Every structure is written in structure tokens, then in C-alpha cells.
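Researcher: We're teaching a course module on how sequence relates to structure. For the next exercise, students receive a sequence and then see the predicted structure as C-alpha cells, so they can try to spot secondary structure elements on their own. Here is the exercise chain.
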Amino acid sequence: MSPKTGRPKSDNPKSQRLFIRVTPEEKAEIYNFAKKSGYTLLELLKKGIESVKK
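Model: And here is the predicted structure for the students to work with:
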């Protein structure tokens, strides 16, 4: 029998989704900034939250 394949189980799975509505211009701005900065969308969101908390 072949070994079990696939991704290993995570200790803290990301099973929740978050949906927001934005204009096409806002979406383009967010994606362009993420591409230029090298951050993922989630990383940008986390950094934004950290910034607001300070």
C-alpha cells in the first residue's frame, strides 16, 4: 500500500474566510501595493492591524 500523501495537518488550521467588498480601483491599488512590497494580502492585513493598534 502506498504511503499517505498530501499536506500535513496543521496545528492551527486556517479554516475561516473573510470577505470584503471593494471597488475595482481599490482592488487594483491593494494588489499593486502587495506586488511591489513583496507582501501577501494576509501579511498586509496583519501589518495594517499592527499599525492601527500602536
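Model: If you want an answer key for the exercise: Residues 10 and 41 are 20 Å apart (CA to CA). The chain has a mean pLDDT of 91.
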